[in-house]
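Hey Z.,

So I finally got round to the NDP thing we talked about over coffee. Here's the setup:
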Amino acid sequence: MKEENILVTGGTGMVGVALQRELPRAQFLSSKICDLTDPGATRSLFKQQEVERIIHLAARVGGIKANSDNLATFCYENSMMNNNLLHTAQKCGVKKILSLLSTCVYPDIASYPLTEEQIHNGPPHSSNYAYAYAKRMLDVQSRAYRDQYGCNFITAVPNNLFGENDNFDLENSHVIPAIIRKVYEAKQSGGNVLLWGDGTPLREFTYTPDLAKILHLMLENYDDPTPLNIGNTVEIEIKRVASLIVEIFDFKGELKWDSTKPKGQFRKPSDNSKLLKLGWSAADYTPFPDALENACHWFAENYPKVRGVA
Ligand code: NDP
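And the result:
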């Protein structure tokens, strides 16, 4: 199958831009080319171009605040995009779709590390339940199209992602881009930095160029209906992330924590052993400090022309 006939939805987002380097001849879609919440626009898209395989990244994405302030919007937009895309792709004979879920769809109370079969075992964390249920339905939809029509629709479960072209809007960014921006701007202005929570939660982070390679590997080699955890499983304390960013920018001001603000789940380690059996190795992930340094340098070089700032 030709790389030219791979369509990447969400091709202009953070993961999409990383995939542009991994699959340079694929077709990359933005919401301006086709609003996937619109069934008519989605149908027209497939009339215009030949598509054999899809990497479905398009989603309404955000951090804790954006999720909890916009529960209905996250539910509506993600459900509509997923419904329209899978339904139209099946009708148009698309051979394979690889869609992204997220580790935040896992139950709030679960056995650690998170294994794929636990996804539907209980309610997700209350802060992002609408996004989580819409994403869980993407697993259900993918399996339903496989069972009824024989479609090779598969799903991957990344953990927290970061990298070049992240979203640095403080109203809806994730933890790493928010800290990068706050520390960088405080360094420029000579001020201090106030971060949400208390810095104690542990998180796993995956660098988007690594994720792009894993998605390529899955597109070629994974055909199983079970979702696959694909993140780097090294756990890092948020405080450690902040202190690395402070070092990278050589920030000399004060870093304070606002413990009245939500800090999310304490930890949610995931199990990527099935991915490791597929041919990816733990050593293939870029070491976290190197990846973080790349992301910080990219931000500094492109500031203020970065998403969420300009
Ligand atoms: P971004 O927010 O960076 O990008 C979102 C992409 O979706 C953009 O290309 C955007 O297009 C597109 N999009 C949004 N709304 C629509 C729409 N109505 N119609 C068509 N396209 C639309 O997301 P990421 O790259 O960070 O995330 C990619 C995937 O990874 C998502 O499915 C997300 O759920 C998943 N994921 C992300 C994590 C993270 O930490 N970022 C963690 C785990 C999973 P445009 O820019 O043109 O509007």
